[in-house]
Amino acid sequence: MKLSRIISLPITIIAIIITTSSFADNQRRIDVDSKVVTQHKAKINGERFSYTATTGTQPVWDDKGDAVATLQYTYYTRDKVDDRASRPLLISFNGGPGSASVWMHLAYTGPRVLKIDDEGYPIQPYGVKDNPYSVLDIADIVYVNPVNTGYSRVLENDKGELLSKTQQKEMFFGVKADIKYLAEWLNTFVNRAERWRSPKFLIGESYGTTRVSGLAHELQNSQWMYINGVVLVSPTDIGIKRDGPIKAANRLPYFAATAWYHKALSADLQAKDLDDLLPEVEQFTVNELIPALAKGGFIEADEKRRIIKKMAHYAGLSEKFVEQNNLDIPTQFFWKELLRERGQTVGRLDSRYLGIDKRDSGESPDYWAELTSWLHSFTPAINHYLREELNYKTDVKYNLFGNVHPWDRTGNNTGENLRLAMAQNPYLNVMIQSGYFDGATNYFDAKYTLWQLDPSGKMKNRLSFKGYRSGHMMYLRHADLKSSNNDLRDFIEQSLPKNGQAAKY
């Protein structure tokens, strides 16, 4: 419409035109390709230095070269580094699937962490504080939000149309699709950041362990990008089956740890330190409980009675309860049963957290006490931090949990692919970090996965396990924030080849 025509219209009509135009120009969409750079200072591991934070978006392209999605990331680099080529790059993912890369970013490895108490509970006013244990002193870090998490989104085409649900699932929302497009995206990121020569490490939490296990192989075999280390934080099964008697028995060490924490064990067990108790329970699990469960309904009565008694003793449960469940106690039953007489439930992802239900009867808790606590503190903190400290401002909603379902879980060979990536690359090492009080991805399952990752045993000197007295997000407990970062720092430094050391057997 020409300006002269607008001038001749009534004022109310002009207002409608201006309002409509402003609405069209300001729809709630994320920028496809953007970055905001800010400067900061830190004191980490006793050392003061400055660092740069780059927060932005980078496109995901289809086979035709068209941008079909954009991923939001935050990239931290230490300033005044003489040799960036020898400085490690840590690439960080969370899990879900459908979870933003906020948990480890704002509570574990990043230079700023949540304002929470020493056990991980929220306090007000919400916000962030310096993280004196971050690994930014020895490695640059990039946190990546997969499609539909954080500010990452599927994009409309030039006709204003989104990919169909089927197309989105095929391209983004499945074990294989997720790994494929993220490997391509990382290739572009490494190109832009000029980090091809740097040692590279992948770290993933929960479902993110499935993601980084697959990425190690995909990056090496499709992008020719070789990795020095993979860190699995509270790992999933990564495609390594733990069914039948294994699945049932592997829960017992977690039950024992949780009962010990809540002082629900008998005096003789309660008097032991957790580091002394758990090996005892693990030995019973492997040497006695798994064989007993394998016998099913044909186990001898005397043996069954003996196993029931020991299970109840280690789990802090009644013998009757163990017997009623045929030695196979579902975790949701345990979360409800352990402290039933106290009128409390225990958390799923971190059993240190307590909940209260409408009724003390029932088979599972009304809600997950730990998750509500975490969302209480993470949601305001990440929104404040990105906007006010990193100066990345948008009206797009930050998705702590995004819509990525149904997720295609077929063809999950990520554990085997990680083993193959290790075999192909003598530089590649793997570390698992688990919390003893995690009931979703329990620590003994993680140990079992580590044992089964390389059945030949030829690479076991390149596999390691670290346990912590907390849950799924072990770093929320202050003591474990320090120890887990120190373990990660040691792993990175020990995984760097010595000067002149060739990648060969």
TrEMBL record:
Name of the molecule in the record: Carboxypeptidase
GO BP annotations, alphabetical order: proteolysis
GO molecular function terms noted in the UniProt entry: serine-type carboxypeptidase activity
Cross-referenced InterPro entries: AB_hydrolase_fold (IPR029058), Peptidase_S10 (IPR001563)
Entry keywords, A to Z: Carboxypeptidase, Glycoprotein, Hydrolase, Protease, Signal
Keyword DNA-binding belongs to the record: no
Keyword Glycoprotein: yes
Lineage: Bacteria, Pseudomonadati, Pseudomonadota, Gammaproteobacteria, Alteromonadales
Superkingdom of the organism of origin: Bacteria
Organism: Pseudoalteromonas carrageenovora IAM 12662
